[in-house]
Structure formats: C-alpha cells, structure tokens
C-alpha cells in the first residue's frame, strides 16, 4: 500500500502543476518552458496512475512492482477480487495507452507517406520549399526523417516576399525542433478520449504553445511584423485544410498569436518554474523508480 500512496502523491503533484499551467498566462511569453513542464507532468500522471493501481493490487505480495508482476502468473489466485481487479485495470490501462500511441504513430506515418508520394507528383521545389500549384493559401510542414516545407501558389500570391520568408522560417522551426513529436502523444490521448473537454483543452494548449515556439524562432530570424501580417492575411483569406500529420502555419488560434507578436506582454520568467520543474522531475523519478524498488 506504501507504493500506491507514493504513486498517488507523485500523480497529485503532477496534476497540481498541470492545473497551474492551464491557468497561467506566462506560458505565452515562455512557451518552450511551459511545454517542458507539460511533457514531464503528463508523463508523470500516466506513470503514477498505472503505478498506483498496480501498487494497490500487488500490495499483498509485499514486494516491489516488477518482482511482484513477475510472480503474478504463479500466484494470481492468492489475490482477492479487489486487488486482482486493480492489477487488471493497471495492466489494461498501461497496455491500452502504449498500443494507442503505437497505432496513432503508425496511422500518422502512413498518412505522411501518402502525402509525400502525392507531393512528388504535384509539387515543384522552389526557394527552399515545395510549391503546389493550388489557389488556396496554405503553408505547412510535413514532418518526417526528411521534412518537407510546402507552400501553395495561392499563399505565394497572397504574401509579400518578407511575409513568405517569415512563414517559411516558421515551418522550418517546426521541422528542425521536431514539434510533431511534442504534440503526437497528446493527440493520441485525445483520439483515445475524443469527448473529454479537459483533454481537448490541453491538446489545444499544447498545439498553441508549439505554434508560439515556431513563431518566436521565425520572429528572431525575420522580424515580428512580417510574420504577424502573414498570419493576418492567412486568417482574413481563410486558411485551407491541413493534411493529416502536418503542422500548418495558421492552424492554432491566430488572433492570440498575432496579438502576441505585435504587443508582447512584458512578463518576467516565473520564479515558480524551477520549483515546479524540480517537483515534477522528482515525482516522475519517484514513480518510475518505484517500479524497480524491491520494497
Ligand atoms: Zn505552425
């Protein structure tokens, strides 16, 4: 039971940090720092939830989780119904989450592969991007081992040279910083629970923070105003649909990003961030190590 209590404490710490992140505005000024906390706290919540269920269920064995799990096939009949149900639920939850992530990764990889093939047929390379001859204004990054930056003829007509350079810098930032790997676990969770309003809100937050990271990188290279006006033009023009598995320049709430680029709110780095980071890292390390500790 001590193991389950430790996991519950670690999970509670992670939940508190996630709630703080959801309510904070400093995250718009420091999206990268916020994403680090989101990733650690989310992983902690998942490991702790599985660990708490297994910790409770395997408590009668009086051993660490992994040694007890290895014993389970031989001594499962020694558990009462509640402990057995907790073990079953813990294993099912862990397996379900892993399988769902793998299935989502596979379907996304297939969609991207299909799209890469299509681009080979219809796109032509120009000024560091693949240009698709289509009137709708779109620009996006198709991630992968060799990422593709795609821009439509409509977008090239819509934007000035400076705006186009800013948009391409934004897409290159997505590709270079592997942002698709940041959003993928959260999108997989949302696919698992599509009706969860909280999960939808968390996913939207993560996607917005990722866009802001790419905005910051592009703004440092090309200036804030060209990117802001490019976003404004995309928004006014109505951006086209983004292919599955791609990251588009104008997907996330555009007004918030334009406002942030033009009128950045002066915000000092939150003094609580190192504390929250240390708390979540400790919680995650505790939860992971409890799987191996032979208590
Ligand atoms: Zn983007």
From TrEMBL:
Necessary cofactors: Zn(2+)
Family matches, as Pfam families: Peptidase_M48
InterPro entries: Beta-lactam_resp_regulator (IPR052173), Peptidase_M48 (IPR001915)
Every Peptidase M48 domain range: 120-186
Record field: transmembrane: 6-22, 34-61, 81-105, 269-293
Keywords (A to Z) from UniProt: Hydrolase, Membrane, Metal-binding, Metalloprotease, Protease, Transmembrane, Transmembrane helix, Zinc
Cofactor detail note: Binds 1 zinc ion per subunit.
Family: Belongs to the peptidase M48 family.
Protein name from the UniProt record: M56 family metallopeptidase
